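no rush on this but wanted to send it before i forget. theres a chain ive been looking at and ive put its sequence and its fold in token form underneath. please have a look and point out which stretches look like helix strand or loop to you. thanks a lot i owe you, the record is right below:
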Amino acid sequence: MSKNMKAAAPEWAHLDLNTVPDIRVTPPGPKSNAMHQRCTQYFKGLSGQVKLFPVVFDYGKGCELVDIDGNRYIDFSSGIYVTTLGHCHPKVTEAVQYYAGRLMNCHDFTTQIKTRLMEKLAEILPGDLNGFQLYDSGTTAVEAGIRVMRAATKNHETVSCFYDFHGKTYNAVSLAHIRSFVYGPCRAPGSHMVPRPDVYRPLWTKPDGAIDTDQYINFYEEYLEKGTVGKVAGFVLEPIQGWGGSVIPPDDFFPKLRKLCDRRGILLMADEVLTSMARTGKWLCMEHWDVVPDIVTLGKGFGNGFPVTCVAVREPYKESFESISASSSYGGNPMACAAALACIEAIEEEQLLERSAHLGQIALRRMEQMKNEHPIVGDVRAKGCLMGIELVKDKKTKEPFNKAGELVYKKAFAKGLAWIPAGHILRMSPPVVMEDEVLMKGMDLIDEAIGETERELL
């Protein structure tokens, strides 16, 4: 099949819309409530989505989730961007099962499955990204990426952007606008933050009202000169913001930022924990703009649920791994390598890059229709299976409508859509194996929930 043609959803992930969604008991049902209360006597620190809708899931397959009360949901979350290939993808499940019974861990010794994964990564990633180290969480990969960046440049300062998210340990939090995660000094020394282009909410515009990306780059130039001590190792950014609300930059932003980094002799690190491995229709989201970062982090969909992440660096910098004590207890264990390699092979065999891109195109058309029909829908966006709907009180003032976001989330969930809240921005990350009809059914549930919310609040 040509890359320009639509790849069909794999047969194993077929979902019968006559049986899903199926809400038998108003969720969260009595069994979910009882189990949640038992668990949370001890388990603390829950995410916002669980606090808003504490269902207890029993099992999942493909694009379906089932809770312990027997309610069946369409999955528009992928376990918060993780199960990109759907729940329990047979190829990934088989690979993990095999190594769970053969060799679970041998620290960082070379194994055959690790060697095959390294060779495959070097094959699929763009440019000369061919130096790798493996970890077990996105935060750990980000921390390692920062250390590599500092070792390669012999500088320590970092520049990141407002509302990006990079993890929950100290240096990772220092790259983000998440004050509640740190007690004591607010940021690691040498951490700087700057605004990034948001097409819907631009800080700088041209006379015609369009976003002016050059003004952002000019500001970065000025900030590097006057806001730092001249020891900047590099920029660290999400290609598309996840936690910030599926915010997609203008197409000229990353090419211009790449040139700025090259002029200044600093590195560009793309945190693709969320956006890589077919989530946006490419292996790396940065490929949409033909930009090769110096350092990349991979995660979430990299193992489709198995905890495996990666730091990839370009050829000139890969020896920097040797100076940072790069190995970890669980990174690169045979089960992790098997899961990651199986995911890559499944993406290739099932043509899921093309599938993801196609789903994004039809989702955007459906969301544009919602935008035209609903007064509280201010903006919609999609890049592959990374989607967002921004709710506002007024389309002219663009004032965020957080109450509406909470209500739409709960109403759609109660109708059988498992998905992600983000204040006034609704986030969607369906598995890339989803069928067109299932995607449209999920969009219909959101449409219904928005309409009901408007009638309640306006």
